[in-house]
Amino acid sequence: MVRIRDITAREILDSRGNPTLESRVVLENGAIGVASVPSGASCGAYEASELRDGDASRYGGKGVLGAVRNVRERIAELLARGNAYDQGSADRKMIELDGSKNKSVLGANAILSVSLALARASASSLGIPLYRYLGGAMANRVPVPMMNVLNGGAHASNNVDIQEFMIVPHGFATFDEALRAGSEIYFALRRILLDRGLSVAVGDEGGFAPDLSGDEEALALLVEAIEKAGYKTEQVGVAIDAAASEWADRDSYRLPKRGRVQSGSELLSFWCELSRKYPILSIEDPFAEDDFESFHCLTERLGDRLLIVGDDLFVTNADRLRMGIESESANAILIKPNQIGTVTEVLETVALAGRYGYRHILSHRSGETLDDFIADLAVASGAPMIKTGAPCRGERVAKYNRLLEISSELGGSCRFGF
Fold it and tell me: Which one, of 301, 303, 271, 300, lies nearest residue 287 by Cα?
């Protein structure tokens, strides 16, 4: 057993320039773990609660000095001298100290930063990679990247309502080859946009954010870029994150940028039509976070051939996932550690998903840091795919570069693909 010697934290900035939290855990044998937490722009109502200061004189009220104090004082005292290798015990103690349903007392950002840093310190103490510490000897699967190369919705100030259009380079033997294809397609898309006089400014996750004639044009552009880069849609599919909770308007859906109003059944027909016309592999959050019925209907219609992914629907929460399992809604879950708040809860949710045949996809947030923890977590949990943005912007590329490093470390034992 190695005990925890010290825990501290500080306020840093995320990729949008907003404050976030970085925590540092030091063990008695000198091992150190440092971790920072991201923040989302499009957040589900059932996510664990970030603690923000609300002081309008600092960062427009978005400061996290209160969360920093909670780490330095309350959490540090709670976990002092505890067994660093007992991740479950440390996480449960923090949850119990918080005492709220959504971690609003200490802040999910405070709790998660310590949970991540503790896991990293423990792996360092044992002299093994983080993915091996979390996943054991059989952690050898590197996920397929889902690259958000066209942005809309809450991630961009253009006229596109669907939040993310992704390329998914799955038909390759290695992660290295898939990453290369994704990068080449990204730059082929850039050339296409420039040739048409469209903006190549990028959104929060590194994707381009031009004004388009309609959301469907984005899918056509992705297919064109795949082919222009010399690849086939059998090798590189596409995926959508609608973030439709942003559109919910009582019993209908109002697309805010175009003002179009659709019923749940009309929206379902729209997704089915797109899936017939384009090589779509995955549709994330096609309906609002409480619309289990529509999720069920779409899963029944398309779930045998593509992923229907719950993000706002499940928010990495095992209780919400059980609701989906009972209602047969969706067949995949997005995993974002800051939606739930501890490493232990993330792994429990992943295990539950696996027991009921749900695929899981590791994901970044739109407000990110250079922390690459989710890359190791994806490998540790055997995730078939990972979302971490376009092959652009340092906070996105950091995750891809870590996966390249892991692929190299695994060598001949590395598995890649769905």
Answer: 271
In this predicted model, what pLDDT tens digit does every residue of 298-348 receive, in sequence order? 999 999 999 999 999 999 999 999 999 999 999 999 999 999 999 999 999
Residue linked to tokens 């952690």: 139
The structural domains of the chain, ordered by start, are 4-127 (3.30.390.10), 135-416 (3.20.20.120)
Structure confidence by residue, pLDDT tens digits, 229-254: 999 999 999 999 999 998 988 889 98
Residue 176: closest CA among 363, 377, 418, 416: 416
Q: Which residues are designated catalytic? A: 205, 336
Q: Is 252 left (phi over 0), alpha (psi -120 to 50) or beta?
A: beta
pTM over 0.85: yes
How far, CA to CA in Å, does 394 sit from each of 86, 124, 399? Answer: 33, 24, 9
141 to each of 35, 185, 221, 248, 412, how far by Cα in Å? 23, 24, 31, 37, 11
**Tokens 């080859």 sit on residue:** 177
